[in-house]
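Example 4.3 (complexes with small molecules)
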Amino acid sequence: MNLTIYNTLTRKKEVFKPINEPNVGLYVCGPTVYGDPHLGHARPAITFDILFRLLKHLDYKVRYVRNVTDVGHLESDADEGEDKIAKKARLDQLEPMEIAQRYTIRYHDAMKMLNTLPPSIEPRASGHIIEQIELIKKILKNGFAYESNGSIYFDVEKYHEKYNYGKLSGRVIEDMISSTRKLDGQDEKRNSIDFALWKKANPEHIMRWPSPWSIGFPGWHLECSAMSTKYLGEPFDIHGGGMDLVFPHHECEIAQSVAANGKEAVRYWMHNNMITINGQKMGKSLGNFITLEELFEGNHKMLTQAYSPMTIKLFILQAHYRSTLDFSNEALQAAEKGLSRLFAAARLLTKIKPSANSTVNVNELWEKAYTALCDDLNSPIALATIFDWVRIINSLSEGKETITQADLKTLKSTFNTLVFDILGLANEQLADTKHTNLAGNLMEMILNIRLQAKANKDFATSDKIRDDLAKLGVTVKDRKDGFDWEI
Ligand code: ZN
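Answer. The structure with zinc ion bound is encoded below.
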């Protein structure tokens, strides 16, 4: 089946054709690791996880690269303010790399709870300073950057004379110039829309590296240009990220690649839309900033309860990734109900008895749902189809519809492939039951060994088992007909 994806650059849906079939290069902008992962991190991670899973299902060999920004992301997009990680390090009196490490681990934990697959490579900006310096040298050599007081800036106007700055975001360069503040003559930049490729470090700036121009640090946009092409080649297939990164981050990435190599590095640009909370943009100043941990624990004044990672995931997948998505308790509670119906259907499927003939057409589920997913990741249509089948599975279990052995086998594998393999919804309840059953069986096994030891008058062993279990918080009660236990 063909996969079509909406390309932000051409503003239309295109049939996906890999540059070097069967290999596919996928690059997604990862987190700047200076705070707890929040709702805004969940949507791109889940969107591109589905893409990664679907591409693999389509038999492509996918290299999925997602970076970790641990240097160079300043507080303001206008190359001003402190480095976000250095600032957090200063406030917490820690090394910047301790901050990066702490929040990278928290990000990974949250992504694992959301059951997203880890990327093939997860490069860090601070580990690729040499590559970034080499890229700056190329851009300087081609005349699209200039040095100013030890810093290097990208010359946007000069670039725009030959190429098209604004092609991705649709912004017009004249408007951008008039809407940014006027330079006062003291500024290092020639033009307010120029952006930093290298910044000379102030004496108080902690993260610093030597370069031909000064001791300093790279501009934020540079890392993704350098690392994507290092690991995926040039050009590569798909570059993804949140819509908030289209400008300036991705616009600048395009300019950097074209200025360095005379050609674009990316074939398809994909962007997920933003999340709002009760209709408002999420922001620390608005008091509606919710971390994933707060969501999973229900620990935020805007939340009436906790929501499981899979509830969040199902909720995100019920909207198309290019639509806005509004979070509210009501919407999340509806998703929670949907999730338990979905998992109940998965359990029912294992118990349905086959009949001599089928009154349902099992091929319909795969055809409709898979076609929708291959149509620019239309997860809401795929899920609507899956929920139609949740109803059908209920009818089958009640005997209102019938299914043959062969059809049942097809239905089980289709349902599981769609729900668990491609949409990546892990069955939290099933996993729990599995663990509970295993623990129960292990207890029976251990206590039977103890019973045998007692029968053999080996009281040392039987007492040891009882005492060791007590240390684990398990109380064993001897009964005439055997044993009982409780935690
Ligand atoms: Zn990036």
